[in-house]
């Protein structure tokens, strides 16, 4: 038990250094566990706690779509990825969510790991690269 606790603590430290938001939810989208996400931009503005509905901050169409994705992910035990844009103050940010089905061995409860990734900067750089390539081909 002591070894497992130590490994669990090490894993939480590693996850805490990543710039991703990682949340474990049940099939209804209720938060079961949260990795240390203090660095992740979105969750600095949207407080997420155990027991919260993870998609509450999104519009109704996305909520319906993502609830369906949770069910589909669990029924097929396949990883899914979804994209959304969210406005923080005056800026729009692009985020991806990976839906990763997992099972806890203690009680075989069906859970999904949601990995949120801020794609804003990567998308901006991709657009810049495309524009640069256009100009290079013209010149």
The total count of helices amounts to: 4
Shape descriptor: elongated
Helix share of residues? 40-55%
* Beta-strand content estimate: 25-35%
Terminal CA distance reads: 65 Å
| pLDDT < 50 runs, ≥5 residues | none
Q: What is the count of β-strands?
A: 5
Helices and strands, in order, run as HEEHHEEEH
Mean pLDDT: 82
Main structural class: alpha+beta
Task: Give the biggest sheet.
Answer: 5 strands, antiparallel
Q: Rg, please? A: 18 Å
Widest β-sheet, arrangement of strands:
2-1-5-4-3
Can you offer a commentary on this structure?
The protein is α+β, with helices and mostly antiparallel strands and 139 residues long. Helices cover 40% and strands 30% of the residues. It contains 4 helices and 5 strands, in the order αββααβββα. A 5-stranded antiparallel beta sheet has the order 2-1-5-4-3. Strand 1 (20-26) and strand 2 form a beta hairpin. The termini are far apart. The mean pLDDT is 82.
Write the layout of secondary structure elements.
Elements: H1 2-17, E1 20-26, E2 31-34, H2 42-45, H3 60-76, E3 80-88, E4 91-103, E5 110-118, H4 120-138
Antiparallel strand pairs: 1-2, 1-5, 3-4, 4-5
Explain briefly what this protein structure is.
Helix content is 40%, strand content 30%. It is of the alpha+beta class. The protein has a five-stranded antiparallel β-sheet.
Question: Main attributes?
Answer:
30% strand, alpha+beta, elongated, 40% helix, 5-stranded antiparallel sheet
